[in-house]
Every structure is written in C-alpha cells, then in structure tokens.
Design goal:
268 residues, alpha/beta, Rossmann fold, seven-stranded mixed sheet, 11 helices, globular
Amino acid sequence: MSRRIAVTLQKGGVGKSTVTVNLAAALAACEGLRVAVVDMDSQRNATTHLLGDRFDGPTLYNVLQGEAELGAALTPCHHPNLWALAGARELVAFERGSDDPRRARTILGVRDVLEAAMPPEIDVVLIDTPPGGGIWLQAALAAAHGFLIVAWPDGFSANGLLELFQTADAVKEAYNPDLVPIGLVINHVRNTTGHRGYAEVFQEIYPDLVLQPLLPVRSAISDARDALLPVEFFERRYRVSNPAAPLFRQLAAQLVTRMQRAGALAAR
C-alpha cells in the first residue's frame, strides 16, 4: 500500500511545490522508492516543474471526472521511479461553500480515488497542496496518512501553522481519524536575527517534527527550478555539483525513517 503524504501550509509562497518535487526526486533516485507526485494546486507549479510548461496530458481533473484512469494518468518524469499526476486549472471548479453538501462528496471522492486506484507498486505519494484552507487542502488531508509541513522561519508561517493544525483537526474529526503530522521542513532560511529566532522557536515548540537540515536560501534551488528539474537531476544532467542536492537527500532519508517507524513502509 502506498504511503500518502500531504505537503502543506495554509500560506502561499513558502516553497511547498519546490520541496515536494525535490523530496520526490531524492526518494526516487537515492532511496529506491517508487514515488508519485499528485498536484492538487490549480496553479500547477509541481506539474510545470516535473512535466514542463507545455504538458497537455491527462490530469487529476480528468481522473475525477471519470475521463481517465488514475494509473494511466500517472506520467513518468526524469527517473524510472518517479511519476506525476498533473494538476489542472479546472480544479477551482470544485471549490464549494462550507455548507454545500457536495463539498463532503468531493473530499471523500478524492480520498477514495487515491486509496483505491493508486497502482500498488507505488511506495510513496506526495500530494502538493494549494495555499489556504479550501477544499483541496481538506481533500489532501482526508486522503493522506500524514502531512508534511513546509514553513519559512517568520511570523506569517507561524500563523499558518496554527491555522493548519486547526484544519487538520477538523479533517481528522470529519474524514480521517488516523491523520498525523509527520514532519516540518523549515525552508528559505536566511542568516538574520529574525530567521534564526523563529527557527529556534519552531524547534523548541515542535522538537519531534522539525526535520534536519534546515533549508537555507540557495540559488542552486532556483537554478534547478528555472531549468524545470529537481536539484537531484539538475546535478546529474549538467554534471555539476549542486549544494542543495545533499540537503534534500538528508531530508528524504529522515522521511523514510519516520515512515518505517510508523510501520507504513517496509525497510529496503
């Protein structure tokens, strides 16, 4: 059975898609796991990063509309162990008011598709989520075994963390009683008093969640993103040392250890 992890924070611009894509690449290339990235964000940043900006194949929207099977909609990308289920602009059409009965049906429908139709050979599913607390964040949390938080060391992310835990508690009560936080990636860390202070506070408040290392601001990450490659494959394709690649390898290894401790992933 696949281990499904929602990568999230109720704030935009913290690098959720970048972390999702680069963790997926490290899990696939360095940990030997078969990984699927599911893009639930209508902005499609993870899709563009992995499949290019001209991708016109089947999407998550097509799967939910019954126009494509999930297994057939998984598109191979960059490595034999890595696939992506593309996001779609049309996903915004599923947004419902909180009192709309169709909202619960949509959330449960997404959960059921990812549970029942994901090919059994997939080991890990990373779900990239949009900002805010809308239907797609809730659907991702309803479908996930756990959620991985991505935050900057600042006050906006601190508020986003509190909002996320409130949303997760609501989803846990309504749809997914086994949902748990699995880790916190502190991203875009600068060597400033403010960033150091918030990073220390996060590690004091969430000592069991924070993954190491913290991710500093690195041009190597944006260089790879601009080339539409994860840092792992940017390094391999251009035969240059990318200082960000070892950081994501370390994070991926910790994520695997946590999943193994939870009994959700066989040791390899």
